Amino acid sequence: MLNNLRAFIRGNRQDRDEGYIISSSKWVTGLMVVGIFLYNLTGGWGTVVALSLAVALLIGRYLLVRQATGDFRDMHHAKKCYGQTKNKDYLRFIKARGEQMLNDNKVLTQSAKAEIQSLIGFADKYI
Q: Could you tell me if 58 and 87 are in contact, meaning their C-beta atoms sit under 8 angstroms apart?
């Protein structure tokens, strides 16, 4: 049981799908624990603040996931369209969008970064 707890805390998740954005579950759980401890000390107001931060964190992650999913969908569609039309604008879009995602989004998973690099490599190959 202790090994299972250690694996959970360390984030040992080889069998799960990562997605595009790193998980915020540890931060949310930590904020809930802080809220529990603050309940008696602050008469409930500390809990409200901690849980509000947790909800804001979840909403922020949801927005990032939606944006990243849409960007990946657009880049894969551009790759498909390039295969059909051979229009180099699609390749320029893939390269520009991929580089922008790598520069702007610091919470991408390693698999998402690798996928972006492969799409940029595809675009560089045919430009």
A: no
Please classify residue 94 by burial: count the beta carbons closer than 10 Å to its beta carbon, then call 0-12 exposed, 13-18 middle and 19+ buried: buried
The residue length of the chain stands at 127
* Residue 41 belongs to a domain: yes
Per-residue pLDDT band at 18 (split at 50, 70, 90): confident
Q: What is the pLDDT of residues 112-122, one digit of tens each?
A: 999 999 999 99
Residues of the domain holding 112: 19-126
Tokens 């090994």 belong to 3
CA-to-CA separations, 36 to 23, 29, 48, 55, in angstroms, rounded: 22, 11, 10, 15
Stated as kind and residue range, the H or E segment containing 78 is helix 45-85
Closest CA to 18 of 93, 113, 99: 113
Assigned domain for 7 exists: no
